[in-house]
Amino acid sequence: MSVFDQRGQKVTYQYNAAGNINLSAVENRADLVCELEKIKDEVAKARDAEVIDAELATDVNYHITKVVQQANKPEPSKTTILNHINTAKNLIQGVAGAGGLVTALMKVAELVQTFF
Length: 116
Fold this sequence. Notes:
Elements: H1 29-48, H2 54-71, H3 78-92, H4 99-115
């Protein structure tokens, strides 16, 4: 078992992949939309911890909101959904500390291929 000495470290935000977001449990579109809402919450936490700035968080949330809106349509456009997911991912791709969110968005893109 590994032991890590974390004394003196200050962590303002850390994406918790084992937290509330569970993309591996997604079985349908409704589950995916629910997990997208959780990702939006995680973006807000990252913003509040100043890992990503407020303007960037607004842009990312905009694109995730557009994905949710499109996914809830009777005949959603997979292309539109993927464009918004990729844009959101690209916006935060280079942000240190947001790597877990990028990974989550990449998994969402994979799930879109299955459900749309």
